[in-house]
Specification:
It comes from Vanilla planifolia (Vanilla). It contains 19 helices and 15 strands. The protein is mainly α. It starts with a helix and ends with a helix.
Length: 468
């Protein structure tokens, strides 16, 4: 009888909580009152009751996906930059000092993310890759690094060395978000470039921090080699969203975030970026107000008690995806890379719906025959708001790449680069006005007029090709 009575009490408590929360959801005209009420509920109601009860008062707004040409252009350009960077690394680490045969690199087309043959890509950028006949087979095209690529490679290695401590922190934060505080090396290798880690991070960065990382062999890692944390560095358990709101207090510490005004029980707001006029729609405003009233759960907190079907879990998933993208150098990554982390991060099976459900936070691009996820707040007027030194070096790489296209038909003798990778020669060369031309990605002629998100009033679901 006592057990039945307890379950009945919990049910009544949960029902009352849902009703009060629904009232809070209707207070659109006074977001501060609703926020205070939400925090009060968290303080007065047992923590387990908050987590296990599904409170559904968020307004449902259906949106359809359309393009943003500005973001697509960034992804188009960065795809070539990534492919060139990976090829420079592969050629530089080639066992033989002789030029690398093109046929040895051709199978890497998919790995490089290219939509054109690797040989065509190599010939497209002569300022990076110098073509020469093979020593034994003259008809076989081979490639070595051009002088500009050698300079870039040297700078990249120096930058990785200077950034080692910050890179270890980014890697540790990603591990801290997983259930077991460990992730497969295969998944980490896919995210390596986006996280700004060297290609040899498994043999250089990880062994240099035995106080932080430990390699788990396949016999202990379920058939996979995994990277695990030796301990949980609490000073790193502060999310990017919490840091964004840290200017409200002076000299914030870890205790301030965990116990003060910025704890997980505080409904922090995600920065939103909507097209002109779109964010002013009543449905969207009501939806975002309801969403922001929900308590914010840090991606580094234990989520085992949260109901998988609750709105709290949905906001927790948004927070995890927001944090992962915040850790990347370019504030973006491929959707498939995130899918490989789904089980370890405790994400629902169709978590990628969040990218289309919250277009004010994320942008989903189908450019270059792949699906890329971007963090909108990371960019302003087509540029990174807070560029990382690694991203600045990659911008310099793109400068060298487009210079090669500009002079491709005029002879390589005109292209002279100094140690700063600045172009020397004619002042009227017009390099500054050159927009880079077409990239290796196939051109998509299906352009949308506005290139932004719009409300879909004729459909009950988003496009499967975007969400799934």
């Amino acid at each position: 009888m006592s057990r039945t009575h307890t379950e009945e009490s919990r049910f009544k408590s949960g029902t009352a909580l849902a009703r009060i929360a629904a009232v809070a959801g209707m207070l659109h005209h006074s977001s501060s009152v609703a926020s205070v009420l939400s925090v009060t509920l968290l303080r007065l109601t047992p923590y387990s009751a908050i987590l296990h009860n599904t409170v559904r008062f968020i307004t449902k707004v259906r949106l359809k996906w359309v393009k943003n040409r500005g973001f697509d252009h960034i992804i188009d350009r960065d795809t070539d930059i990534k492919a060139a960077s990976l090829l420079i690394d592969l050629i530089a680490r080639y066992p033989s000092s002789a030029p690398v045969p093109a046929r040895s690199l051709s199978p890497l087309k998919k790995t490089l993310g290219l939509t054109i043959p690797v040989l065509r890509f190599l010939r497209r950028y002569p300022t990076l890759f110098a073509e020469s006949p093979h020593p034994r087979y003259p008809s076989l095209p081979s490639f070595s690094l051009a002088p500009a690529a050698v300079i870039l490679r040297r700078r990249e290695l120096a930058l990785y060395s200077d950034d080692a401590q910050a890179a270890a922190s980014r890697l540790a934060r990603l591990l801290m978000m997983s259930r077991s505080r460990s992730l497969p090396f295969l998944s980490l290798s896919s995210l390596r470039y986006d996280l700004g880690l060297p290609s040899t991070f498994a043999t250089t960065l990880v062994p240099s921090r035995p106080d932080l990382f430990r390699i788990i062999p396949p016999s202990e890692g379920g058939g996979q080699t995994r990277l695990s944390l030796v301990h949980l560095p609490e000073d790193l358990a502060v999310s990017a969203l919490q840091l964004r709101h840290a200017d409200s207090i002076s000299n914030p510490s870890y205790r301030d975030f965990k116990r003060g005004a910025f704890s997980s029980a505080t409904p922090l707001t995600f920065p939103m970026s909507f097209p002109r006029g779109y964010g002013a729609q009543k449905k969207v405003k009501a939806w975002m107000e309801d969403f922001h009233r929900l308590p914010y759960f840090s991606p580094y907190d234990d989520w085992s008690g949260i109901n998988q079907e609750s709105e709290l879990m949905e906001k927790r998933v948004v927070g995890v995806l927001h944090e992962i993208l915040s850790l990347t150098v370019h504030k973006k990554t491929k959707r498939n890379y995130l899918r490989s982390l789904r089980q370890d991060l405790g994400l629902p099976e169709r978590f990628t719906r969040m990218f289309t459900r919250y277009p004010g936070i994320f942008y989903l691009s189908l450019k270059c025959k792949t699906t890329t996820v971007m963090l909108r707040e990371g960019y302003q007027k087509g540029k990174l708001v807070d560029p990382h030194p690694i991203s600045l070096l990659r911008d310099k790489l793109f400068y060298v790449m487009r210079t090669g296209i500009l002079y491709r038909g005029k002879g390589m003798t005109k292209v002279v680069l100094d140690d700063d990778l600045d172009l020397l020669g004619d002042d009227d060369s017009g390099v500054g006005a050159f927009d880079g031309g077409n990239t290796s990605c196939d051109e998509d002629n299906d352009e949308d007029e506005d290139g932004e998100w719009v409300e879909d009033g004729n459909s009950d679901s988003d496009s499967d090709s975007v969400e799934d």
